[in-house]
Amino acid sequence: MTGNVHPTALVAAGARLAPDVSVGPYSIIGPEVTVGGGTIIASHVVVAGRTTIGRDNRVFQFASVGDIPQDRKYGGEPTATEIGDNNVIREFVTIHAGTAQDRGRTTIGNRNLLLAYSHVAHDCLVGDDTTFSNNAQLAGHVVVGDYAVLGGFVGVHQFCRIGAHAMVAAGSIVLQDVPPFVTAAGYPAKPRGSNSEGLRRRGFSADDIAAVRRAYKTLYRKALPLEEARAAIASDAKASPALNVMVEFLETPGRGIIR
Q: pTM of whole model > 0.90?
């Protein structure tokens, strides 16, 4: 142990903590946990299982990271949890390890903000720079793209995908895939427009935002079959490469997109 570990914390002998990691009172760090430099773990946090946490993360009090999945099929297999750098994990957040039936690991990228009581279930894959508002909940096997925003009390059905730069409004229930750049709301969630304001805040050019709006109209306003809409957006992407992320999303099989 180092001077950064509070004397009431329990850090297992096998845990590997960088010298400048801080662990607060009454926290518990399991024997197969690795924590990178600059990470701050507050009081009453449990980091369990085969969990790797990168650099400069901040984990607030009463969070639970890396424990076994809430899945009846789980039989003690050696699955894992991987968390990148510069994430903020607020109070009472729960993040569970993967299952042998899928990826075998739950993965969270970099610079994500997970607000209080949000939940990331087994085998989820969360990209970079996402925001989970309070009580946003992912079921198992969900994929969330970069810069996606989930409002408070959003629930996402297992195996769904939330595309990059998408925004799901508070209280929505997502039962099918939400394409990139799309704003969704309702129970079940339905498309409500393109996330133009979010794109402006992230520095997208006016031309790219206009291209995204046209793609949204192609996908949702022209009554085209999905394959025809995808082909039309792919053609537009030749002049507006920002649309490639939407094209790739639509080409990847899933639960079907919200329409």
A: yes
